Every structure is written in structure tokens, then in C-alpha cells.
Amino acid sequence: MVLNCGFLRNSTVVISFLAVCCLGCVEKDTGAADESGLLLPKDASLVHQVTQDNSADEVDDRRLRAAAKDHADWLTYGLNYNEDRYSLLTQIGKNNIAELGLAWAFDLPSTRGIQATPLAVNGILYFTGPWSVVYAVDARMGRLLWKYDPEVSRQAAILLCCGAMNRGVALYEGAIFVGTLDGRLISLNADSGEVNWSVMTVPENGNYSITGAPRVANGKVFIGNGGAEYAGVRGYVTAYDALTGEQVWRFYTVPGNPSEPFEDPILGLAAKTWTGEWWKQGGGGTAWDTIVFDPEFNQVIIGVGNGSHWNRNIRSPGGGDNLFLSSIVALDADSGAYRWHYQTTPGDSWDYTATQPIILAELTIEGTRRKVAMQAPKNGFFYVLDRESGELISAEPYTYTNWAKRIDAKGRPVEEPGIRYEDGKTHWLAPGSHGGHNWFPMTYSHDTGLVYIPGVKQSGPYAYNSGFPNTVNGVINGNEWAVSFAMQMFNSQVIDPNAPAPGEESGELIAYDPIQQRRVWSIDQPSYYNGGLLSTASGLLLQGDAEGFFRIRSAESGKLLWQFDVRSGVISSPITYLVDGEQYITIIAEWGGGRGQIFKLTDAVYPGTVYTFKLGGTAVGKERVGASVRPLTDLTTDASPSSIGNGYTHYLQNCFGCHGQVGQEGGTTPNLARSEPLTFENYDLIVRKGAFAQSGMPKQDHLSERDVEDIKAYVIFVAQTLRDSKLSSEELAARLASYQKVSIDAQAPSGLK
User: Fold this and answer.
1) First-to-last C-alpha distance (Å) of the chain
2) Contacts of 392 (CB under 8 A, 6+ apart)
């Protein structure tokens, strides 16, 4: 038997985004409260009135369409409707980059991670933080104008796969639009932060969430949702009237119960690509990130996510492509009617979502000018599509892949044998479930003709053990997880020697030629969790990274030109804009998210900070404080191997996503092996009773008292073993795998042990 020893060396490859158990996930407040109780950053005051007219009310359809050429403001998520994140501003360039300095820094009262791309209009920044909180900040002075907290229940964390994240807001005719973690779409007055209207976009008490930024066009706000890691979720995108909040149209990405009328005729055709009773599990297919408006064809292009369950053999046991999972779908912007689709991963069983950013462009291909949509989805292939028809123009791997040999002439992947993990073994496939590229925004430089991709280098373990309890098959009754991570640590493994080895992971910055379909250059990065990208007409390429630096490179060669220590790892994207005719650059540093909860490269977890730069800036940033690690608990346990093994399984299912591998230093949430004795004394109160629910540690009442005691025994056992140094990491992994097998055998029906 080959054991999953790589898991203990770096278990993030197994379930590093399962944010379902956050013991002590308490946000740190770093500011002071004013007399109204509003939490303010240090050295900041509440500005009740903007000093000059706010032109947010002038951001209409004309201005949004003009954003393709007018880059004085950053008006929409990807800068313009092309979402190419390529700025025409050139005041800051290679010839004067040495003069770039910090203009101001603004401290935020959160430590859970910021993924948002800010918007900038007339010197005012609008962005979101954890728990869907919205901020408006004066870009001239770095002063808070207003803050809106939608008061999302912290218990909602149990419904999220990857942390209390939000990627930003939309702006239209004086209103700011935000989607909240609990599924609301809210319109705010851009001047005051007061609520204009609020609508619930998802079924209440379901496993839905919103983390993506809304988009606005033609008087409508477009929003999707997340949650396909859970059973019972069916994805859709909805358009709402921007002024009233009334629903205009809704498009479901997967078919529902065929005994009922389909909401759209195209879903009848899609249903023919499904088998069994898929609708009872929901089907999945959430559009949790990418929504792009294409004004030339008056269409909305969406990226669709994974199925629920991940494993096609479970959700659609007779096979089939399962439309429109893992697809790029174009809809009529006015009616929501289906236009065309292209499926990147037919019959997806690996979480190879097509929700990654899509860039619209015009390329000269074989002498013909083509209007295209470009995407580097999780599955490792870079796609160029004709965006009028959805026709595939080309597709080649942008990273190492071992699940498919190539994309054939019909646009379908030629799968490698055995990749659907049907043999009861753990298969290490590349890319893993984090993809060769995840949600982090790309940029397309009109000067170099290159697309720049924040890449991932990692394999992922997939498994399904038929007949064994759901606790080792990515499904828990209480949480209704519907994933295919290998939680059976006793399995034999199938490993590709050419892929990243089990337990090894890193990132890379890839410069990719979309016409020639080839990598031009790449730069290795120690983490695959790095911020989004921005390119400029002055030849610059900008990115914040996990190491805690904001770096500017040559877009042509990747040569490092300038860097600034922002202390914290960065997962957001930089923007650039003009204030009073002067070019500014803003980036927000706050580490967190699915990966950030359990891992960091910096010395400490710092509160979020908004950094703004300009030529001649003289402000001084804060220094790093140095590492401070709590000792391992000195508690001991005499629990049985079966109890420890049961605790191991439930820890993987319920706790690992937030707290990471037991004994490591951790990320933005505490590592449980380093808890105080009082925490261990109150496990049941914290876990099952929800004592810290409003601090971000959701109540886990689906667990039994025995399960909680076994989790505690497992944590103490690992801490005790590490503290005493009695076993190597490989030996400890083998010991735990054997304990898990003992526990599973005790639960399995007779004849399956």
C-alpha cells in the first residue's frame, strides 16, 4: 500500500479551500471608534461631506462604454467592458519609475483578506472588504468618507468554500452595487452610503453565497452566485433594474426537474446531456465570478462553474457532457436569452470551472481581424473564441496538464485514460482543483500583445471509494459537501512523475501569446496565491504577491523595475487613475481567502492597508513586526486509534479549510495545535454550540459530541507527536492513515471492511 505521506508535508493540496470550521476565527480590530460607534482606521477621521462634486452620478452607459479609451477613472471591475486591465495612462513609466513613492496609506479594521478591485471616480475610491463591507475613501488624502456594513451573519461562513471574501462593487448613475455573502444585492447612494434598495437574490436557508463583483450595463445590474461545492445548489445569473431592484431576467445554467417546464427552451436541449436524477442534487453550475458585458454584440458572457457533485458518476451516473457546467455562455443582454456556448470541460469531474476572468479583444489571426474572448480557465488550456458565434479559434495548454492530451478539431478534450478516478485509488491530476489559474485577474497588453496570467503549479488528489461512508467521499450530511477530494488517506495513489509532486505547490507569472498559443516567458513565485495584474501603455506590469511586495516589472521582459514592501501578502488587484490630472496607483494588501486562511509567507498577519502611490510620494510605510509563534499545546491524549482516526476524518472535513495542517504556524486563522488550554476545555461549546459564531467561527451542530471529542483527540495527538519528535512527518502520516482506516472499517457495512 502506498500512503498519502505527501498530505502531511503539505496538506493544502487536499482541501485548502474548505472554510467550514473556524475555531477562534476572530477578526482583529485595529482602529478606533468615533462617537457614533463607526470603526475608523488609525489616524483617520470621518469625512461627512466630499470637498468637491462627486461625479459618480455621471457614470452612465455612455461613460461606461467610453471607458475603453478614457482611463482617467477606473469605472468598472476590469477597467472597461473588455476587462483587459490595460491602462492608457503613461505619466508613470520606465524612465521615472524610481521617483514613484507612497502618497498615503489607509489602515483597515480587518484581517480576513481582501480580493476586491477598487473603483475610482473623481478622486474617490470604492471597494469591499471581508463580510461584504463597502468603503468609500478620498484618494487625495486617504480619508474615510463612509463605510457600509450589510451585517452578514458570521454563521454564513459555514456556507462558504473559501473565506468571507468579496471582489468588489459596481457603479452606475450615483449608485454603488454590492453582492453580499448571504445572497443580497444592495444599491447604495455613492455620496452617503445609504441604502437605495436591497433584494435577496438566492433562496433563503440554502447553500448559496455571493463573492463576485456585480456588473452594470444598459440600466441593468448582473449578478451570479456561488455554492456548487454543496448539494442542493443550482446556478443562475440574474439581471436587475439598476434604479428599482426589480428582476428583469434570470438564466439558469443547468436544467431543473424535467417533469416541470424548463425556464428557457435551451435547457430542454441541455437536459439531454444529463442522466439520472441530477436535479435532486441541484446540479451546480454556479457563475460565481466572471460576468462580462460585450457592447458590440449586446451580450453578457458568463463563466460557469463545477457540478454538484463534482464526480459526474454521482450527479449524472449515465455520463453526458452536463451542459452548461464548465462552460462559457453568451446571453442576450436585454432578455437573458441564450446566444451560444462553448464547454471547456465536458462532463467535468475535477472542479475545472470556467469562472475565471474573460478578456474581450480584437486579434489578427491568420490575416483576419477577429473579435475574440480569451480565457485561461482552471483546466490548464488557454482558449480563444470568436465572441460573436462562440466558435473555438484555438486552444493549447498554458501550463502542465495530465488530464487531457489536447483539444481536438471539434473543440473537445482528448482525455487521458483513468482520470475519472473510478478505481478506488487516489489520482494526482494536474492541474488540481485550484486550476492552472484561478480567479485572480489577468491583463492583456495592447503593446506587447501578451496576456499575463497569475499561474498555479500544483497537482490535486481526487478519489471516490464506492461503498465507504460519505465522510471519506467529500460529502457530510450536515454540511452537504459534494466534492471529490481524497480524504481517504489510506488509499493507494496514482502519481505522475512529470507533474508537481504531491505536497509541492508554487505559482508563476506567465506571459502568454494568445495568437501563437505559446508561453513567452514566466517567473516562478513561491506561492500560487498572488494578486491580479495590471499593464499600462508605458510598458509596466503591476502585481502584488504573497511575499508581501507590490512589484512593477517590464511588460516586455518581466524584469523587475521597482518594488515596495506592503508587509502583508496581496490577493487583490492594483488600479491606476488620475486625480486632478496626476496619475495615482492604488493596491490593497490584506492576506486571506481559501489559501490564506491556512498559510502565509510573511512574518505575521497584518490588518488590511490601502496603499496609494504617485510620483514624488514621500509617505513612509510601516515596517514588519517580526514573527511570533505560539508554542504547541502541552496537553496529551490516551485516545484510541479509532477515535483519533475518526477525529482525523472529521478534521479534514470540517476544520482544515480554515485552520490548516495541525501544528503548522497557520495563516489568518489560528492553528488549533497552538491553542490555549481553555480552548480545549470548551470544544463542544465553541464547535457545536457556536460560542464564537459572531466572530466568524460558525456553529457545527451537525457534529456529534463524540465527533468533537475525537477531533480534539486528533489535534492533541498530532501536537504531542510533533512536540516529542517521536515520528518523522512521513511516519506520522502513515500512522494517521492507519488510524483512519481502523475508524472507517468500524463504520463500513459488513463485507466492505
Assistant:
1) 16
2) 342, 383, 384, 385, 407, 411
Catalytic machinery residues: 351
Which of 31-40, 76-85, 324-333 shows the lowest mean pLDDT across its residues?
Answer: 31-40
Q: How far apart are CA 9 and CA 32, in angstroms?
A: 41
- Rounded Cα distance, 402 and 414, in Å: 11
Q: What is the mean pLDDT of residues 280-286?
A: 94
Burial of 281 (0-12, 13-18, 19+ CB in 10 A): buried
User: What CA–CA distances, in Å, run from 401 to 34, 342, 529, 659, 660?
Assistant: 54, 20, 19, 30, 27
Point out the least confidently predicted range of 47-56, 195-204, 330-339, 356-365: 47-56
What mean pLDDT do residues 190-198 have? 97
C-alpha count within 13 angstroms, C-beta hemisphere, residue 58 = 9
pLDDT computed for residue 35 by the predictor: 29
What distance in Å separates the CA atoms of residue 285 and residue 303, rounded to the nearest whole number?
9
For 451, the grid coordinates are 496576456
Query: Is 50 exceeded by the pLDDT of residue 202?
Result: yes
**In 3D, which of 512, 398, 392 has the Cα closest to residue 449?**
512
Mean pLDDT, the chain, integer: 88
As given in the structure block, the three cell numbers for residue 197 are 434598495
What residue type is 546 in one-letter code? A
Q: Is 483 helix (H, G, I), strand (E, B) or coil?
A: coil
Between the alpha carbon of residue 182 and those of residues 186, 243, 307, 647, 748, the distances in Å are 11, 22, 21, 30, 36
pLDDT of 580 above 90:
yes
Specify the range with the lowest mean pLDDT, choosing from 29-38, 410-419, 571-580.
Answer: 29-38
Mean pLDDT within 328-350? 98
C-alpha cell at 230: 454543496
User: 249: Cβ–Cβ under 8 A, 6 or more apart, which residues?
Assistant: 238, 239, 335, 336
Least reliable range by pLDDT among 66-80, 482-496, 536-550, 629-643:
482-496
Beta strands in 539-690 (DSSP E): 540-544, 549-554, 560-565, 575-579, 582-589, 609-615
- Give me 324's grid cell: 452548461
38-52, 198-212, 255-269, 681-695: the lowest-pLDDT one: 38-52
Average pLDDT over residues 602-618: 95
pTM of the model: 0.90
**Cα gap 199→223, rounded to integer Å:** 12
Domain boundaries, the chain: 5-10+629-747
Report how far residue 302's alpha carbon sits from residue 245's, in angstroms, rounded to the nearest whole number: 21
Beta carbons within 8 Å of 73's beta carbon, 6+ residues apart? 67, 119, 120, 121, 122, 577, 578
Burial classification of residue 680, based on how many CB atoms lie within 10 Å of its CB (0-12 exposed, 13-18 middle, 19 or more buried): middle
Q: Tell me the fold of 5-10+629-747.
A: Cytochrome Bc1 Complex; Chain D, domain 2 (1.10.760)
Q: What is the CA radius of gyration of the chain?
A: 25
